[in-house]
Amino acid sequence: MLTDPISVLAGVVIRVTLLLGAAWLVTFVMRRAAASTRHVVWASAIACAVLVPLAPGIAPQWQMAAPAFLSTVSAGSASVFIEPVASAVEADVRTDAVVGRVPRASTLAQGVPSTVEGRGPAADGPDSASVAPLSPSSLAVGLWAIGTIAMLVYLFIGVVAAWWLRRSAGAVDAPWVADARDLAEAFGIHRRVLFVEAPVSTPMVAGLVRPCVMVPRDARTWPASRLHVALLHELAHVKRRDCLTQALAQLACALYWFNPLVWIASRRLRVERERACDDFVVAAGTKGSEYAGHLLEIAQGARPRVSSLVFSGVAMARRSQLEGRVMAILDPAIRRSSAVRTRLAAAAFFVALSVPIAAVHFTGNPPVVRAAVAAPQQTVSTPTAPIQSRVTTPAPAAQSPGPAASRNARIPDASIVEVALTRMLVEAAQHGDQRQIGSLLAAGADINGEVRGDGNALIAAAQRGHDDVVRFLLDRGATVNAGVPGDGTPLIAAAQRGHLPIVTMLLERGADITIPFPGDGSPLIAAAQRGHVRVVQLLLDRGADIEQVVDGDENALIGASAGGHLPVVQLLVSRGANVNATVWVEHAYWTRDGAGPGEWRTPLSMARRGGHAAVVDFLLSAGARDQ
Predict the structure, then answer these.
(1) Residues 218, 224, 229, 232: is their CA dihedral positive or negative?
(2) How far from the centroid of its chain's Cα atoms is residue 173's Cα?
């Protein structure tokens, strides 16, 4: 195993770069998923990067021959050059012993002595005590230590600033505090949260153990709706424990300050974090355009210096991220939330992908670090140069991995290829590219492969209305009833978008009209919620259960009444739907007053909640009663 500090530096850089590169690839593939899911991937990548130096103690070690740029250069050379670690880090780890350049790389291999002990090959001479030049390894460790200490000092200043803001905040007895506490209780935040008015220009959260929500002192003059969305946003940070993930990102930046990919990862973590909290606010019932307006107003009054100084806090509005956030808030096609199991699966997938990367250990000859004044006649065999001999003595030859180890090492690559093929197949189905779908299937793509957030190829084609692609996939063996949690089935997807020809085709190919999916409803419920009267009529003609109840989606009549789709309501009632159907919902809508423990819903109550007067009048005329 390579033990020279420069080799350890390069090895750490390689593994961290590969980890963060894998995170970028995974989040790119998941770009249509919810921001909260992508945030989990970036947080997992940063946590794994922080743990890379501990990999020898917590992960199996896979021995691998050292790359060419880590191997020993010629023994008679007057200088040592270590080639770039990868194109992503350019020439940051090149070492030139002749001119004294040192690698911009870090090492966590503490206690590893320099292989030349700070002396050149002439150290045995009479004047060796007076000439003790620093080796490139020592300089590299020193440079890393200086940068890391500087970063930690900067972080400490941020912690002190957050503590000062918290101490300087006075007692608050404003009416908004009671609203904030009610929201925290409704969101299931069991930790005690402190609410203060502090000398900040934008709402923010600080504190790992006891979170503190800080609002500007002039927040009392804000409109009630603006203060409400600000509290929703900050409580989302508390519930998601974003201060903890930011602390991990800061630690990674301190350890690997020289690696630009770490800073990029930290920035992407912040972007996805804020978008996830924005999605939380919109999903809680706030209109997107209204929330975007409040966000712009808050950002206009923000002072950048405060949010930069309080590096340990999570600020609500950063001007550098504002444009992308507003566009995302106003985009109705963006997925606003993801199931807990989806986020756990994303984190588990990335951790599983990270283990083989973090466990790789390079073997081979340690790099030879010589002083430029080395005499040509001093070689390994010179008995009067013990230090020189110790420096250039090669390590035992690395054993090539056996067949079993080679197979294990290829498993992650095979998984990546399979995932990439599935992702490309689903995207091709979304775009209706039948030719590309055929090429991907010929290359081995799984026709029923799933991509959480986008379903499978058949679901994607049915959702986008590509009837020719749907037929093509069915002819090649796609499972007509294959469902994906969070995306439903092909029939549900087509019914939800109102694609009547595709619904008809799927039914003719054996699609089960009764299959429900919690969160996606059933084909009939999905069509009724969106007001697709012709699809509803077809499904009823084919025997759909008009009173079918699915957790989280009630039944068809309640869904149509909530959406204000009078023609669908009239059709369902004419077909015998119960106008007084009552369904218990475990979690009610989020409102400004929080969410209750649950509620009973009826077609009439949901029509009234949505303000659909025409639907209310029709239901009353059909015999609906208040419960």
Answers:
(1) positive
(2) 38
The most confident of 247-256, 270-279, 319-328, 533-542, by mean pLDDT: 533-542
pLDDT grade for 18, boundaries at 50, 70 and 90: confident
pLDDT reported for residue 360? 62
Helix axes 533-541, 566-574, angle to 10 degrees: 20
Q: Which residues on neighbouring strands pair with residue 216, listed in sequence order?
A: 198
Render the burial of 281-295: b for 16+ CB within 10 Å, e for the rest.
bbebebebeebbbbb
CB atoms within 10 A of CB 67: 15
Structure confidence at residue 542 as a pLDDT band (50, 70, 90): very high
Predicted structure pTM score: 0.47
Give the DSSP per-residue string, 110-131. Answer: TTPPPTTTT--TTTTSTTGGG-
Dist CA 275 CA 291 (whole Å): 13
The vertex-390 CA angle with 388 and 391, nearest 5°, equals 65
Sequence-distant (≥ 6) Cβ neighbours of residue 332 within 8 angstroms: 288
SS3 content of the chain, % helix, strand, coil (to 5): 55, 5, 40
Least confident of 37-51, 116-130, 149-163, 183-197: 116-130
The Cα–Cα gap between 163 and 98 comes to 48
Cβ–Cβ under 8 Å, residues 228 and 592: yes
Q: Angle CA(610)–CA(533)–CA(335) in degrees, nearest 5?
A: 60
For residue 248, the 8-state DSSP code is H
Residue 20 and residue 266: Cα distance in Å, rounded? 10
Which pLDDT band holds residue 61 (cuts at 50, 70, 90)? low
Number of H helices and E strands in the chain, helices first, is: 25, 10
Owner of token pair 């283990």: 355
Give me the pLDDT at residue 180, please: 84
Cα gap 601→599, rounded to integer Å: 6
Q: What is the mean pLDDT of the chain?
A: 74
In DSSP terms, which residues pair with 204 in a beta bridge?
Answer: 214, 315
- Residue 288, both tokens: 């997107």
Phi then psi for residue 214, to 5 deg, are -105, 135
> 3-class SS at 497?
helix
Mapping DSSP to helix (H, G, I), strand (E, B) and coil, where does residue 171 land? coil
Q: Cα–Cα distance between 449 and 611 in angstroms, integer? A: 42
B/e letters for 317-327, b = 16+ CB within 10 Å, e = fewer, are bbeebbeebbe
CB atoms within 10 A of CB 384: 8
The pLDDT tens digits for 577-627 are 999 998 887 765 555 555 556 788 899 999 998 899 999 999 999 999 887
Mean pLDDT across 531-553: 91
What is the residue type of 172?
Answer: V
Q: Pick from 525, 540, 535: which is nearest to 574 by CA?
A: 540
pLDDT value, residue 592? 53
If residue 533 lies in a helix (H) or strand (E), which one and from where to where?
helix 533-541
CA 221 to chain centre: 36
Nearest residue to 357 via CA among 411, 292, 315: 411
Can you list the domains of the chain with their CATH numbers? 409-512 (1.25.40.20), 547-627 (1.25.40.20)
Identify the residue with better confidence: 322 or 536. Answer: 536
Residue in 470, 459, 532, 471 with CA at minimum distance from that of residue 498: 532
